[in-house]
Structure formats: structure tokens, C-alpha cells
Amino acid sequence: MSPSTLIRDLQRAIGRQWVLYAPEDLLVYEYDATIERGLPEAVVLPDSAEGVAKVVRIAREHGVPVTARGAGTGLSGGAIPCEGGVVIVTTRMNRILELDPENRIAVVEPGVINLDISRAADPHGLYYAPDPSSQKACSIGGNVAENAGGPHCLRYGTTTNHVLGLEIVTADGDIVWLGGKTADTPGYDLTGVVVGSEGTLAIVTKVIVRLLHKPEATVTLLAIFDAVTQASRAVSAIIGSGTVPSALEMMDKNTMEAVEPFVHAGYPPDAGAVLLIEVEGLAEDARQQADAVVAICQELNAREVRIGLSQEDRDRLWAGRKGALGALGRLAPSYYILDGEIPRTLLPSLLDGVYEACERFGFRVANVFHAGDGNLHPNIMFDERVPGATQRVLDLGEEIMRLCVDAGGSITGEHGVGYEKRNYMSWIFSEDDLEVMARLKKAFGAEDGFNPGKIFPTSKGCGEVSSRMRAAIAKVGPEAYV
Amino acid sequence: MVNLENIVEELQTIVGAENAFAPKEHKFVVGGLTPSAIVLPATYEEVAAVMRVANERTLAVIPGVPSFLMIVGNIPRRYDVALSLERLNEIIEYEPADLTVTCQAGITVDDLQCRLGENGQMVPFGLSSPAPHAIGALVAANFSMLRLAHGTPRDFTIGMRVVTADGRITRAGGKVVKNVAGYDLCKLYAGSRGTLGVIVEATFRLVPLPQTTDRVELAFVRLQEACKFALDTYRRGLSLSAVDVRRDIREDRDTGASASAWVLRIDLSGTVAGVKRTRREIEHTAQAFGSREYEPPRVSEESSKESFYAWQGNRLECEASVLPTQVAGLIEAFDRDTPGAWVQSVSPIEGVIRAAWPDAGTNEELVRRLRNLTAHIGGSLVVTTCSTELKRRIDVFGDPPPAFDLMRRVKQEFDPKGILSPGRFVGRL
């Protein structure tokens, strides 16, 4: 195959070895951790903002869109080039450019792995707080694009609360700094809108992150309940009591059944749900909060509360939670992870609704999720080889999203809208609301130049989407992260 | 030319005769300009109707006044209508166990905190002031006193209702604590100072009230030491809610000589045990630092009021934002180059400096020097108070930031006719 003029222009700008266009090379960049697939025309690996800007300008001249890709661990198809074009992979932009422990900031390139920031900051007693479960693999650029969360966001907030500034490349190919290293910078908070914009407004080429001091003490608790309803009530009681744990996670019976044979966490076979709760701060505070949590759980008939103080004990309590998704992959040929958000007081009735719907549709569901935030992740298990099963799973997913929206919640707590949920946007936003969002896109000059087909509802291609989703769902498995 | 005829009458058809009138008092004046009409809508629909009229007739509207938003900002290009939100003062939804509250923009912080306090909760504005601040103004200015512990409104505002410049009621965010559906427009509106839309409702993430609070004040001879002490204390993860340094100048009771000291005020909050230990450790370390406990001067209320008003006069007041490690050096540079500053408040942990120069409210040269000193180290400096005369000659926000072109385009998209607080923001947007 002889390279097109697009490819030749890209090769001239970035170097031959950093432009992929052979079909067998492109296949690797066709999917991420979920749902969607789309084949790019070219994949480029620049190593600087200037390189990214060149690629953006070339793509614009050729009239093709650009989609940025970090580590490809996203759960809403954020890195999938739905309408082809050029994929910019940030893997080579993986340097920690500056670490300033005194001012508690780091300047990093977008390809830096989330956990590597905390590793670099560790000798100074600092860390980077947002901790998506994929933090060993996911890139900070992807985290910024999706406003990634994680178990500890309950107390510390999501990515947006920890990013002070961004260097971006605009759709015009200009390199611009938003925000900065200082606490305040005059003007509109454009950093705040680029975070979570799913790569549709700009391509991020540098990130200034805020680092936190590590807490003096951390206590992990595992509370075992007979029923999900009791555990849900305990969640509301803990949040309402004035204790803000740093993490508050729930796993239901189906999850525990999947986990136990592999992790040997010691979950009683007849338990209905467990809560994994972490409190931290000064030793006195952590102890007092732990006591308060224990008292609440006991009051609400917890069968047992296990307490981990040492790192080793705490790791053991977390093991079941961290191994949960891998274990679920062994229960069914495929599973489909949902991401919904609700007011946390409605957890008991909403979980009832989820179980009821899954039973009605005839699917097994395992719930493992960020209960303290009201962020649900039902994992629906199914066999895609059964005719019609995939469509029914999608219908079920839609029904569960409806439950979340009817409860006053949102269609996504941390995975993003992407392609899959764009048509649900009109459930929570009016035409006027969406039109205002579109103005922002226009102000950035991005229109359809960056990651087209994401976030905004569209009337076109729904049938096509479903058939592509069917193909992609098969891919979702143990590699997926929550 | 804008036709200002019958504005009041037209607005009265929306809000009723008693809620739209021509100004009779000074409290709506912004940058020396008096609006032609003051309007007090009581519903979101009325706000939208007011904006539709303004949009159609190209009337310049400043929303959320009177409030401290009126003080900071450039002189408006025009000012036809003062849009007061004080009648929008209801709590819409409050579920304590969700730790969230939704309320209208005109409710005062005190009223809201009172209600939340009954359930041991608060919105972390941390403001205790005799002036009745409306929450909408605080969000529009992205202002909070508890930034160290809880961030600013951009961090804890999870949803909003905003009336657009063309009079549509729109929603941004939601009422749940974690939400990544669509662009996070709440971030854009927080701190936009009424230039992109009229915030009529906000949903906040709440925090529990601390079990106990305490305060330690220490006096240091050198600012460097006070700042270092603050950073060391913060690093140890102690229970701090706010940390602030100010310069205290007073006459020695015996010698009559004036002496200055740096007073580090540390607010503590948390559990009883945590706060107790924090106090103990601070006092222990303070001894090693050679600092002493601060003794507030004994002055009569009358004379302190007097000096307060004397100083209030024609002052230049600024807020600088730099890296925490640059704070002490910058103030030393100010003292060298531009003596006479009242250093009101320094946040050594966040790198924010608030200082004022008495009788300098018209001093353009002083602003230029302060800006140079701050820009030299990569910081920014906003003139928060000065004379109207000086405001005519400077941009109070300083030189336009690197992303100014994008900001201009955002303003153009959100307010194409330039009717919302025109000219007041960065780069006279």
C-alpha cells in the first residue's frame, strides 16, 4: 500500500518511524477497554507539544478529525476514533518535567502513568490523590480527558480538583497555557472545562497537578452484612453522621462469590454484602472515625467488622475489592459494566430496582462500586453467543440508567459519556442546556475536529452503533477497570 | 444608541410595580455609574424575562448586586439595569444524609449555614462577616475562606441553574456529588463574575461541622519564619482549617517606639483529640522557633474603629497569587520598592497575598511597580480596590492571560451582544 498524502505529510513532520498506517498496525488502536471500535487512517506518536500541534494542523488541512489516546484503558470509548482520521498517541510524552515538593506541584506530560506521579512524589511524603482502579496503567492525559475518579475521590475529589493548569493544543494548532502553577490565575477557569471534556475541546500536552501530603494514619475496615439493604443503610448513616471516610466501597453477594475462590478473602458464603471503608488523618482522628464507623455498622446489624491497621492487613482487606473485576470475568463469557450516579440516600431502593430489572431480564448481576459517592457499577453477566442476549443487555443497561436519572442522578459518575451514552444526555439536559455546551465547543474552535461523535446526542447511526457495540462488548472482560 | 426610554415601566410589567424602579440610593453604583433601573425578580422565569428584554434592547445588566462583586472589577462599559437576586432566597432541596443542598442564589450565607448547622453541616465558604453575603455572589467570585481545607466554590459547587444572556433557564452539572456527563460548565461560571450568565441556583457538596475549633496566634519577628513555620505545620498533616499571616504594627507601651511583628493565625478544626494534639504540637514547635504567643493590643473599640475608617479612605488594595515559597520574598520586595503596605493577610500555604497601600488609590505608578515585581516571579496581581479615576486608566486584572483569546471567544459565544457586566472582567471582557 502506498502512503497517502496525509501519511506522507505526517511522516515529514514527525518522522517515518512514528507514523503507523499499515492495517495490521492500526488494529491495535481500534479499541480501548470497552464498547466501541473505530479504525483510524493513521496513528502518530509525537514526543512534544510542537509535534502535536504539527499533527493537528496537518489533519486540519486534510479535513480529517484527530482523536487523542493515552493508555487505552477508558470505559466510554474516549480514545476510539469513531469517524476515523488521525489518532495521536501520547505514550512517548511520558516525562515528569518538574516536581516541586515545597510548592506541592508537579508538571507532567500527558503520557505519564497515574501511579508514577505518586511514586515520584513518595520520597517527599507526597502523592497524587485521584486513584482510578487502572492507576497502574492509565495515563494522566486520559485522566484529564475523562475527569477520572477512583475509590478515594469520596474525600479528595476527582481529577478536576487536582489539576491547576494545562498546556493544550487547540484545533487551530496553537499551543496555549490554561491556568498555571499558582492558586489563582485571572480569567475564566478554562482548565476546569477542558478537564472532563473527553478530548473534544483540545489536546492536552502538559498537566500541572497538585500533590497532597500523605496522611499520618490510615485504618481500613471491612464490615460484613447479611443483606445489601443493611449495607446500603450503613452507607447513608456513615455519610450522614459527620464522618467522611476517604473511601467507602460496596461489594454484593455475587461479587464475593466470584472473588472468594481466587482471593480467599474469607468472606462468609452466606453474607449479603460487604463494605470496605477507609478512614485517615491524624492517628487520633483515624482511630476516632474508625470507632464511629464500627459503632454505626454494629448498630445496623453488621455481622462482623474487621479492622486493618498495618499495611499488610489493609492490603489483605483491599485484595477482594481489587481482584473483583478480574474474578468476575471467570463467571460468564462476557460482562457489561455500567456507570450510574445517584443521591446516596437512595442506594437501598435503587439497588432493589437494579436486582429486580436484572432478574426480569434474566441476567445475573454483580455490584461492586463506590457506595459512599452514590456511584453504581452494576456488572451484567451474559453470554453473547446466545442469540439476542447482547441486545437485551443493552436494553437492560438503558433501563438501569433510567432508574438513576429518575432518582435525580446522572448517566455517568466517572467513566464519561463517550459514544455509548450520548443519546442519554437529553434525559438529564434540555436542548438549551446542550446548546450552551455546544457554544463552548465552538469557542474552542473544535467543532468536529477533535474526537467527533462523543458527548452530544445525535439522531444518526444508532443502529450502526448497536451493532458495533455488540462486537465490542465481547472485548469487555477481565482487562476492564472500574 | 441604546434606547433607555421606559425601561422601568417595561420591567415593571415583568416583576410588578414595586419590584422595578429607578435608583434612589447609592448602593447600586458600580465604578461611578448609576443604572437606569433596578429590578428584583422573584422567580427564575422573571429573571429570564428580564434578560430577554435586556437582550432585545441591548441593555447592559449587572447581576447579583448589591454585593462585594461590585467592588472588584473594571469600570463597566455601560450599566443600564441592576439585577438584584435578593428575592430568590429559598432553600430548594436539602437532604442531610446526602450531604448536598440546593438553594437559590440570593440566600445569604448566614441564613443557609443556620439551616445546615441544625444538622451539623455547612457549605465550606467559611465566611463570618456582618455583611449579608449572598451565595450567588460568592460563587460568581469563586470566594471562600476555607480554601485550605475545602477548596473554593469551583470545588464544591456541583450544580447550577443559570439564566443565559438571551434569557433561557439552563442547567449545568446536577445534584449528585460525582458527575461527568458533558462539559463541566459550573467551573466556567464559578469565578466568571456575572459576565457569562446569571447564576440563579446552586447545588453544593456539604461538609460536616467540625467537632471542635480552636485558634492559635503566634508572633514572629521575621516573615520568613512565620511562613516556614506554617508550611512545616501543614506538612505534618495537623488539623488546620485556615492559616494566615498579617503584619501588626504598634507602639511599644513603654518606649513609644513603633514595632512591627508578623502574626501567624492558625485556625484549627477537627476532632477534640486531633485539635488538642495540633495545639500542643504547634506550641511545642513554636518554642523551638523562638516565636511567642501573640498578645492582641489593648485598644478601645472607639479608637480601633477610628483607625479603621481612616485607613479605609483612598487606598490601593491588591491580591497577589504566587507560589507558596515566593510569598515572603515578594513581600520583602514590596517593602523595598513600595513601602508603606498594610499586609492584611498572607496565605503562606496557598501563596495568596492581600495588601493595601493607604492614600494610594490613584497611584498608577505604584500599580505598575507591584505588577512588575509579581510578574517577574511568574505570579499575578489583581487590584481589588482603588479610586474610580485609577480604574479608568488600568485593567484591574492586569495584562491579559496567555489564554485570553480563548476567553474572548467564550464571552462572545455566551454573551454575543455583550450585555452581561460588559467591560468588567479580565481584558475588559
CATH 2nd-level architecture of the largest domain in chain B: 2-Layer Sandwich
- Placed side by side, the strands forming the largest sheet of chain A appear as 15-12-14-13-18-20-16
* Helix and strand composition category of chain B: alpha+beta
- CATH topology of the largest domain in chain B: the name is Uridine Diphospho-n-acetylenolpyruvylglucosamine Reductase, domain 3
- Largest sheet entry of chain B: 5 strands, antiparallel
What can you tell me about this protein's structure?
- The complex is a heterodimer of chains A (482) and B (429).
- Chain A is α+β, with helices and mostly antiparallel strands and 482 residues long.
- Chain A folds into 3 domains: 1-214, Uridine Diphospho-n-acetylenolpyruvylglucosamine Reductase, domain 3, CATH 3.30.465.10; 217-324, Alpha-Beta Plaits (2-Layer Sandwich), CATH 3.30.70.2190; 328-473, Alpha-Beta Plaits (2-Layer Sandwich), CATH 3.30.70.
- In chain A, 36% of the residues lie in helices and 20% in strands.
- Chain A has helices at 5-14, 23-26, 49-62, 114-121, 140-146, 153-156, 190-194, 228-240, 253-263, 283-299, 311-322, 324-328, 347-361, 389-406, 425-428, 431-443, 462-473; strands spanning 19-20, 42-44, 66-69, 86-89, 96-100, 105-108, 126-127, 163-169, 175-179, 203-210, 212-213, 217-225, 247-252, 273-281, 304-308, 334-337, 340-341, 364-369, 375-376, 378-382.
- In chain A, strands 15-12-14-13-18-20-16 form a 7-stranded antiparallel β-sheet, sandwiched between helices. A 5-stranded antiparallel β-sheet of chain A has the order 5-6-10-8-9.
- In chain A, strand 8 and strand 9 (175-179) form a beta hairpin.
- The longest helix of chain A has 18 residues, at 389-406.
- Chain A is globular and about 70 Å long.
- With 429 residues, chain B is of the alpha+beta class.
- Chain B has 4 domains: 7-86, Uridine Diphospho-n-acetylenolpyruvylglucosamine Reductase, domain 2 (2-Layer Sandwich); 91-208, Uridine Diphospho-n-acetylenolpyruvylglucosamine Reductase, domain 3 (2-Layer Sandwich), CATH 3.30.465.10; 212-298, Alpha-Beta Plaits (2-Layer Sandwich), CATH 3.30.70.3450; 304-403, Alpha-Beta Plaits (2-Layer Sandwich).
- Chain B has helices at residues 7-15, 44-57, 109-117, 135-140, 147-150, 153-156, 185-189, 223-235, 272-289, 301-312, 327-337, 364-376, 388-391, 404-414; strands at residues 20-21, 37-39, 61-63, 81-83, 91-95, 100-104, 121-122, 157-163, 169-173, 198-205, 207-208, 212-220, 240-251, 258-270, 292-293, 316-321, 342-347, 352-357, 380-385.
- In chain B, strand 8 (157-163) and strand 9 (169-173) form a beta hairpin.
- Chain B starts with 6 loop residues before the first helix and ends in a 15-residue tail after the last helix.
- The model of chain B has no long low-confidence stretch (mean pLDDT 92).
- Classes of the chains: A alpha+beta (482), B alpha+beta (429).
- Chains A and B meet through strand 9, helix 7, helix 8, helix 10 and helix 16 of A and strand 9, helix 7, strand 11, helix 8 and helix 9 of B.
